[in-house]
Amino acid sequence: MKFDVHSLVRTNIRLLTPYRCARDDYDRGILLDANENAIGSVPADPRDLNRYPDPHQEAFRARYAAFRGVQPANVFCGVGSDEAIDLLLRIFCRPGDDSILIAPPTYGMYKVSAAINDVDVQSIPLSRDFQLRVDDILAAVRPATKLIFLCSPNNPTGNVLHRQDIRRILLDFNGIVVVDEAYVDFSDEPSFAGELDAFENLVVLQTLSKSFGLAGIRLGLALASAEIIDYMMRVKAPYNINKLTTEVALKAMDNLDEMHRHVQLLNAERGRVADRLREIPAVGRIHPSDANFLLVEVPDALRIYREMADAGVVIRYRGDQIHCESTIRITIGTPEENDAMLTMLTEKLS
Ligand SMILES: Cc1ncc(COP(=O)(O)O)c(C=O)c1O
Where are the strands (E) in 16-73, listed by range? Predict the structure, then answer.
């Protein structure tokens, strides 16, 4: 069956006449078209902050596309990947009727965003070794299932999902498959961005919040076919990405070597922290991780989490997630932070 993205899109979105920004037409000359403040910003700023930003983020999209080996028309910029998740729900899922499918334990925002949009969530848990149960996923698909969210490397487990499994779902599901690659730069596994030409129903999510260390600027990306990106551009708020974010994000593209150095350091620390954890007798399973965190089994995980937070080292309790009984998730910090965490955890577990 030939995949037709337009037939999947909600009718009201397909028929939408998007808001036209003043800056869509002209961005030069004496600009008295957008009710900006021509005197200037308060305080004064050389970056023309009194003027609206580029609604199409052309400069940054071109740089990011080149970095990931895709075309600018394949790149959407959002206020974090969380905005992209919300927009995909709004474009493809009719509130009250449609559903998404997730494979828990996984990132919590898919479910929250679905609930906000009054969209049903079908959960097909990962296997005990945190891999996709592809047959069960495909068997659970109904006509109302519009989006399948897969997270690789997965949060909170840290592992990458088998590529062949993701490919099978892409091939056999006549809907949108979202592969969330927030942690992809910490992994040796190549991005699915390289497979956009092969799969018209693929959306890859990425973010500057993790490997680039820019969680504070809120910039997330969706990479997909030009048709899907066009729908996202039409539905987003007109000026969603501000000038300050764009300025920093463009500088990030000039400093890719530094990003790779940070990733190397964090990955080396991840190995060292795992080795040190292995020396603590009470520590159980340390799950292999391709991300900047470790999922670790400890006795009495909830108490350990609370006591450590009260004492000034905040990790995350994940023991309430399926297949994650009595686990904590530890983000890899600086070597000094990791040492402080290890010292405290050793003390709490002895
Ligand atoms: C899997 C996954 N996707 C997306 C995000 C959110 O990214 P952003 O900061 O771009 O909204 C996170 C953040 O923890 C995450 O773990």
Answer: none
